[in-house]
Amino acid sequence: MVADLSQLVKAYDVRGVVPDQWDETLAELFGAAFVRVTGATAIVTGHDMRPSSPGLSAAFARGAAAQGVDVTEIGLCSTDQLYYASGALDLPGAMFTASHNPAQYNGIKLCRAGAAPVGQDTGLSEIRELVERWSDEGAPAPAATTGTITQRESLSDYAAHLRSLVDLTSIRHLKVVVDAGNGMGGHTVPTVFSGLPLDLVPMYFELDGTFPNHEANPLDPANLVDLQHRVRAESADLGIAFDGDADRCFVVDEQGDPVSPSAITALVASRELARHGGKGTIIHNLITSWSVPEVVKENGGTPVRTRVGHSFIKAEMAKSGAIFGGEHSAHYYFADFWNADTGMLAALHVLAALGGQEGPLSSLVSQYDRYVGSGEINSTVADQADRLAAIRETYGTRDDVTLDDLDGLTITSADWWFNVRPSNTEPLLRLNAEARDEQTMTKVRDEVLGIIRA
């Protein structure tokens, strides 16, 4: 096929519709290009439960092996399970998944040895150039000796590593509802949770890449409704939802109310700081709540604010030696997990924190959830730069605010802040606002939306 790689290769990964935008022939070229760019002599691959994933993953392995590289296939896995394999085996890795996207999509998340990310500035643009050239001119010549392709089980080692990082042996018995959304959480949760003092109520654990029950995207409140109802019906202590490739986790409390990812970030940060003697750097993106840097400082740590996006978080973690990082999108990054993101490890921290005291989750997280946020609100606009300029003009002359341009435009006052940043791939502006009370947040949110949508 003649591929339009400008639509397929994103800032951090490869993602598109199968077979319309890419297929196994193209996946084979990606395998060859990946080993050329990384200089690897061996790699590890894994895939999610989507119907197209096994074929695409196998084609990628063939392309890599044809270049003389040995391939270890771990088969069905979550994205963080692939990161575990990349870290533990010290090999570059390729994960076949389209995360929370609908069934017709698939993609590749790539990393260097030790789960170091591969993005546009760290090899992905070079991979794209090779695939474009080869799709036009023909596949590259094979190596004199073809590499081997072998299978390896990694789920039990992955689970053991995670459980070595969080002590759950002495927690009180908890009842937890887990919604896997027919994604890879249904594969990993039974092994990771095995033997723990938990009464597990599984929802949608059947691996089904057509997502028959709801989209595997818990960031959309509509996809949490089933979990919320079940938590209340079961009188459970909490609920946990994973996205399609199970690298993100979302939490609801015993009343079925969502717990903000910022509150989870603050909770886990306090635990990681305690584990490191009350010292350490914690990374948070600029969309997370004011609560996060406050809690970090209160627990002896140093907060560092970054742009949105896993490549920025991981780069800053490596640069600063941070012990933990969190994002508003429920990605959680751990130094003890090769700076990679793992929703499962964050979930274990929540279980340990809740089970280590007698109160309900709503009371526990209230100390970490101190402000009122709008959530992310997307607006389609004709001219992103024009609307950002209008916002800057409106607020820039005020003496009671500060402006910064770390990622989009952030305006901060004593009682509220908001950030507006453009989408890189769509004609959207994304607004996040927060204030000390609901009335102020609503007023600020509506004022800014009025300018954006004028």
UniProtKB/TrEMBL annotation:
Needed cofactors, names only, are: Mg(2+)
Taxonomically, which superkingdom?
Bacteria
Residue intervals of the Alpha-D-phosphohexomutase C-terminal domain: 376-449
Is Mitochondrion there in the keyword field? Answer: no
Task: Work out whether the entry's keyword set contains Magnesium.
Answer: yes
Signal peptide feature range: none
Q: Which UniProt keywords apply?
A: Isomerase, Magnesium, Metal-binding, Phosphoprotein
The residue ranges of the Alpha-D-phosphohexomutase alpha/beta/alpha domain are: 7-134, 157-256, 263-371
Query: To which protein family does this belong?
Result: Belongs to the phosphohexose mutase family.
Query: What name does this protein carry?
Result: Phosphomannomutase/phosphoglucomutase
Q: Which lineage do the record's taxonomy fields give for this organism?
A: Bacteria, Bacillati, Actinomycetota, Actinomycetes, Kitasatosporales
